[in-house]
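Subject: for your reference before the review

Hello V.,

The reviewers asked for a structural picture of the protein, and I figured it would be easier to keep everything in one thread rather than splitting it across files. Below is the amino acid sequence we used in the manuscript, unchanged from the supplementary table.
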Amino acid sequence: MSTIANIALPADEFALYDALVAVPDLELDVERVVAHDDERVMPFIWVSSDHMDDVERAFENDASIENVELLSDLGEERLYRMDWTTQIEVVVQILVEADATVLDAFGTDGQWEFRILFPEREALSATHDFCEENGLTIDIQNIYEMDADRHGRFGLSEAQHETLIAAFEHGHYEVPRDISLDDLATELDISHQALSERFRRAYSTLIENTLIVGLGDEE
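And here is what came back from the structure prediction:
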């Protein structure tokens, strides 16, 4: 069964540590990452900072990257393509050896956070063992299995998934709403309180597993 894991890596054991140190407000949001071989990984990265000139200089001085190419400039946010060339063993292990997919990757404040889809739980275990054997620090923050049904994609329980779908299909999220919370509870044959609690837990799970990656302790 496929497994999704949220993991964290210290930037000094990975890529772009020098740039993250040189530009304290730098945020790196990976759009896509491809492993060409075991010596080079090519990511497409959204870069945001109030000091883009400093970012450009930091990239020039960062030994972990090369072939940096600006693809889009939106002012305080830019899209780059580059090669990660050093300390990429973990990502090569994930993409090549474990045949996994990086769903999200976010770097800021000296740390990288990833959300990764592994084809099976054993592939995650193999990646963890690889890091330990090579003296690399990996912090597995959250793990959940994807069920045969799609509701498991973001860690939702079957009941939570069915409730959110029913709410959407009955127009609960329309403005104005097509169905009240009480009527939706009746439709689902549960109490108003149980429905409210199910919504609360489902929203919390969705936020944690989709939006919270990369936010850290910014609040």
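For the response letter, the relevant points are probably these. The helical segments are 17-22, 52-61, 89-97, 121-133, 158-169, 181-188, 192-211. The beta strands are 3-10, 27-37, 40-48, 65-73, 77-84, 101-108, 111-118, 139-145.

Happy to draft the paragraph if you're swamped.

O.
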